[in-house]
């Protein structure tokens, strides 16, 4: 370890979070309907596998794009050579149009204000590099995506201060919560540079309301700070109320070409809406020329391959396809969401009412032995090792209330989801229904001996002890 740098060995990556530990356990014993029917089912991964057939059908009908040809002639050499890190103009135009379409064409995006990145992870990190100095802070509403502790902090040195949201109002962002977070940062001598939200929310699966967005715009206007809206799930909204982009709110309030307008930035990716995380396609959109210029230079450390840009520019430019895909994908998500919710209800488990995303925010507080985060982690261990379902405990998302879990539903077949729901129902109905083998019992016993990482209870830069509530 002495041969590595402090950055490489620091523990702020978050790899010891239960969010990532659950993945590790799944990878040791992955469920397979035929080869390993007793394995762990992955319900902790927010992937969209419900509409691959639509994309595969398009690829079959458009062999030129898939084979890197133009008018039947190979352009392999053209794509294989060095490309400017500003990206292919055809792809940026197609992406800007698709982002507008995804928002009902109520707003438009200038391709010149787009910065291409290898996914939303580098997009968010690049914005942190552009907007913060080490030690500066961003405010994030809780619960939030566990990966932000890595994406926003690990290499940039930025800090996260939580905006504490509660189940009392469905975890909505309030004026008082914003002010309290800002005051907390000041007490800790941290300079607040902005607020970052995910809309729709990961892990809540809810869209941010117009009221909340107006609160946020007013807040950053008063404080003269930035707002980053990560809208990676914008195309997954399957029920009312519909999706409202922060760009739409700015337009409706006639704030274009104002100082506030320049301090609002949007992150997007094709990882969730199109189910293409392996393609590594993300974007930053900003109305500040200085941010666009700086982020473009930084993007040279994580470019999208020219081959990927060429293929997706052709796909996204097919308006008939994109219209059909967005509509059909939302129908499939709605049906799958309904199946999960009804299955959980059959097991006596309720969810936060949601209308978007690839997951549900599940209320298992009644299954806790006590109203503590220790009890939450104990329940999570049982679900992973006995029920053999990998779900994400709320504490890994920095939720302030023990007993909430994120459960994904779009990364598996309908048959696998049925198996998962059946296992969970048997577990809830009684311990006798979940027969535990000797090896499973030993694994659970060994895990209980391990100390739960303080990361579970940590809110960014300081630890907090589990609280009784």
UniProtKB/TrEMBL annotation:
Copy the pathway line from the protein's UniProt record: Alkene biosynthesis; ethylene biosynthesis via S-adenosyl-L-methionine; ethylene from S-adenosyl-L-methionine: step 1/2
SUPFAM superfamilies, sorted: PLP-dependent transferases
GO annotation (BP), single: ethylene biosynthetic process
Question: Keyword set for this entry?
Answer: Ethylene biosynthesis, Fruit ripening, Lyase, Pyridoxal phosphate, S-adenosyl-L-methionine
- The EC number on file is 4.4.1.14
Q: Name one Pfam family in it.
A: Aminotran_1_2
- Please list the residue ranges annotated as the Aminotransferase class I/classII large domain: 41-424
InterPro entries listed in its UniProt record: Aminotransferase_I/II_large (IPR004839), Ethylene_sulfur-biosynth (IPR050478), NHTrfase_class1_PyrdxlP-BS (IPR004838), PyrdxlP-dep_Trfase (IPR015424), PyrdxlP-dep_Trfase_major (IPR015421), PyrdxlP-dep_Trfase_small (IPR015422)
Q: Which cofactor does it need?
A: pyridoxal 5'-phosphate
* Entry's Gene Ontology molecular function annotations: 1-aminocyclopropane-1-carboxylate synthase activity; pyridoxal phosphate binding; transaminase activity
Q: Write down the superkingdom of origin.
A: Eukaryota
Catalyzed reaction equations: S-adenosyl-L-methionine = 1-aminocyclopropane-1-carboxylate + S-methyl-5'-thioadenosine + H(+)
Query: What PANTHER family does the record tag this protein with?
Result: 1-AMINOCYCLOPROPANE-1-CARBOXYLATE SYNTHASE 8, BIFUNCTIONAL ASPARTATE AMINOTRANSFERASE AND GLUTAMATE/ASPARTATE-PREPHENATE AMINOTRANSFERASE-RELATED
What this protein is reported to do is described as:
1-aminocyclopropane-1-carboxylate synthase (ACS) enzymes catalyze the conversion of S-adenosyl-L-methionine (SAM) into 1-aminocyclopropane-1-carboxylate (ACC), a direct precursor of ethylene.
The record's similarity note reads:
Belongs to the class-I pyridoxal-phosphate-dependent aminotransferase family.
Protein name per Swiss-Prot or TrEMBL? 1-aminocyclopropane-1-carboxylate synthase
Task: Give the organism, scientific name.
Answer: Capsella rubella
């Amino acid at each position: 370890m002495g041969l590595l740098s402090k950055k490489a060995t620091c523990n702020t990556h978050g790899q010891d979070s239960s969010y990532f530990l659950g993945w590790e356990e799944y990878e040791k014993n992955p469920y397979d309907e035929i080869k390993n029917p007793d394995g762990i089912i992955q319900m902790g991964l927010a992937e969209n596998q419900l509409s691959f057939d639509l994309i595969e059908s398009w690829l079959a009908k458009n062999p030129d794009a898939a084979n890197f040809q133009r008018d039947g002639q190979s352009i392999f050499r053209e794509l294989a050579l060095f490309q400017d890190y500003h990206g292919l103009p055809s792809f940026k135009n197609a992406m800007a149009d698709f982002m507008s379409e995804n928002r009902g064409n109520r707003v438009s995006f200038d391709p010149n204000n787009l910065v291409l990145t290898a996914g939303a992870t580098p997009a968010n990190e690049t914005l942190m590099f552009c907007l913060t100095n080490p030690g500066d802070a961003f405010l994030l509403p809780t619960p939030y995506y566990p990966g932000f502790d890595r994406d926003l902090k690990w290499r940039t040195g930025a800090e996260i201060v939580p905006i504490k949201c509660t189940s009392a109002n469905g975890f909505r962002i309030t004026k008082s919560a914003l002010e309290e977070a800002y005051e907390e940062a000041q007490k800790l001598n941290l300079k607040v540079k902005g607020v970052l939200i995910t809309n729709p929310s990961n892990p809540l699966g809810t869209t941010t309301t117009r009221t909340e967005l107006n609160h946020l715009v007013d807040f950053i206007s008063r404080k003269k700070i930035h707002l980053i809206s990560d809208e990676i799930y914008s195309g997954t909204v399957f029920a009312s109320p519909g999706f409202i982009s922060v760009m739409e709110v700015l337009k409706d309030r006639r704030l274009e070409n104002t100082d506030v307008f320049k301090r609002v930035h949007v992150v997007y990716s094709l990882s969730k809406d199109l189910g293409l995380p392996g393609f590594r396609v993300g974007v930053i959109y900003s109305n500040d020329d200085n941010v666009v210029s700086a982020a473009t230079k930084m993007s040279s450390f994580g470019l999208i391959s020219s081959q990927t840009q060429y293929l997706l520019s052709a796909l996204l430019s097919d308006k008939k396809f994109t219209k059909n895909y967005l509509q059909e994908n939302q129908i499939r998500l709605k049906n799958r969401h309904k199946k999960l919710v009804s299955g959980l209800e059959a097991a006596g488990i309720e969810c936060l009412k949601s209308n978007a995303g690839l997951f549900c925010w599940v209320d298992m507080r009644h299954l806790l032995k006590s109203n503590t985060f220790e009890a939450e982690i104990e329940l999570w261990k049982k679900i992973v090792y006995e029920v053999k379902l990998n779900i994400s405990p709320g504490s890994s998302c920095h939720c302030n209330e023990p007993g909430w879990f994120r459960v994904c539903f779009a990364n598996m077949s309908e048959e696998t989801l049925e198996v998962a729901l059946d296992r969970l129902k048997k577990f809830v109905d009684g311990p006798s229904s979940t027969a535990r083998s000797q090896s499973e019992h030993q694994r659970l016993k060994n895990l209980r001996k391990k100390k739960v990482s303080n990361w579970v209870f940590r809110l960014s830069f300081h630890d907090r002890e589990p609280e009784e509530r």
